[in-house]
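Thread title: Can someone regenerate the structure for this chain?

I was given the following input by a collaborator and told the matching structure tokens would be attached. They weren't. Posting the sequence so someone can regenerate them.
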Amino acid sequence: MTPAVELVSAVKRYGDAVALDHVSLRIEPGEFFCLLGPSGCGKTTTLNLIGGFIPLSEGELRIDGRVVNDLPPHKRNVNTVFQNYALFPHMNVAQNVGFGLRMDGVSGATVRARTAEYLDLVGLSGYDQRYPQQLSGGQQQRVALARALIKDPAVLLLDEPLGALDLKLRKQMQVELARIHRQVRTTFVFVTHDQEEALSLATRIAVMSGGRVIQEGTPRQIYYRPAGRFVADFIGETNFLSGDISRVGDDARLTLATGEVVPVVGPAATGAATLMIRPEAVTVGALGPADADVDTVAVLRGRLVGVSFLGGVTRATVGTAAGQMVAVMPNSHRSDSSSLDELLEQEVCVWWSPSDAVVTEAD
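Best answer:
Regenerated them for you:
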């Protein structure tokens, strides 16, 4: 299948500064593809290159299989939704949404029909005669979405479109964006620095840093099998343990600087390594697991230094000789954090399944 967007060794320089360093990406038709990373990582530069707002310094950009390096934005069959909405304040909602079709010379009857269709898609039927200043931020964002989608672009670019909304409205718009994408099946390329937003919306994510793609994969792959410490640390919270990998027959073990040994899964090589364990994979208790076996369960001892009840989960912090470990354990109406509260400042065990941890090269 021809990719909707393909970047081949794309480079963008500003003088001596390299904003994008030989990035190659393949975005399939109908994907909700997210470019994720901290400020200055190159994600917005990538979006602007696809949109035609800035030129490539090197490499190749294809949209629907066609090289578009030298094409202006209006000839790329791409539309963009910006964070500030960019609505025309002197036009009402219907005029804003139908603007692109009118500029293309589409008949008035078709513009009206299509405008009504896309206002219904974004949940704004009946708002056609209102002006932008009469709408909430979320409603303005929906108008911007309808205006961008009405021309049926091959690719819709979204540049942190929810960044200006408050938290509650942002969550609501995430649900709406996912619904709209499912209905229209247009290829969405979404830029954000919000990890939770990327995980909840994207079909695939490219994590970027320093103008490069560090890891690309589904949200589950990125979260549960991060390629290294940067990705693991940037996407959620992670426990890190450093040591040396050794093998005894078919079994691999990580020996920590403290001399403690924990079983690991996966590494073929031996030597210095870092183990990454998500907090929800860790359990805390007064004793180790009932079936504790050094070959099947990883166990460390430490002192419980913090317990926080967070509604659906309890967050526990344990100070061990190898470093601080964080566990996030689910609650139910029958159990709360009180049993852990009683263990504060006492010796406890933390344990996890080796299959839930990821081994990478040493920092």
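The longest strand covers residues 298-309.
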